Amino acid sequence: MSGSYGVTAMDFARGTQSWPQAAVVGALPQWFAVETRHRFEKKVLAQLGHQGFNVFLPLLTEHHTWSDRQKVITVPLFPGYAFVHIDQSRGSWQTVLRTAGLIRFVSFGGIVVAVPPKEIEDLQLLLQEKGLFSLHPFVHTGQRVRIRGGCLHGLEGILVQHEKKKLVISIQSIQRSLAIEIEGYELELV
Question: Could you tell me if 14 and 7 are in contact, meaning their C-beta atoms sit under 8 angstroms apart?
Fold first, then answer.
């Protein structure tokens, strides 16, 4: 969700942004991602829930150890984001946008896009099963990435997707490349 453009209440008030195509009277409720202020995810969740909206904040349980104590805490799986299931009336959109700590609806190219219900259901299912997943950077074929960990730690290249994941390492000066199988390695964007 990073790199997305948000749509705020001010955009609508100024007339610089039209209401989302999905925001029509009588349309069925859908899930939408919202961006929150830093560490305001739970507060936004509580406010929207109190106003009667169906909300979802994926939480991860972590064990933290300090020099004087240990504690189990819950943190947002996707810091700065939550999901709200709303009918698509103008009043609902305005109410959500007026929530303290909420920055904007997540949009792409100025268009608010609904989150498919299957993705929310899959995420809820994964969270019920503790320890079956780990966070992974969102990478696309063709992006420049770096390997984290293992014997290839620090190696950079372009991600290529064929039948197996491959990383292409290019030597610009001689215009040659090598493809390395990277199945099992953790990647990060460069």
Answer: no
Distance CA(172)–CA(152), nearest Å, equals 20
179 contacts 159 by C-beta, under 8 angstroms: no
| pLDDT (tens digit per residue) in 122-164 | 888 878 876 556 565 666 778 888 888 777 788 888 877 655 6
Does a structural domain hold residue 76?
A: yes
What's the structural domain count of the chain? 2
In a domain, 134, yes or no: no
| Domain of residue 43, residue span | 5-128
Question: At 26, which amino acid appears?
Answer: G
Q: Do 160 and 66 have their domain in common?
A: no
pLDDT-derived band at 3, boundaries 50, 70, 90: very low
> pLDDT-derived band of residue 176, with 50, 70 and 90 as boundaries?
low
Q: What radius of gyration do the chain's Cα atoms show?
A: 21
CB-based contact 33:81 (threshold 8 Å): yes
What is the distance between the alpha carbons of residues 92 and 47, in angstroms, rounded to a whole number? Answer: 14
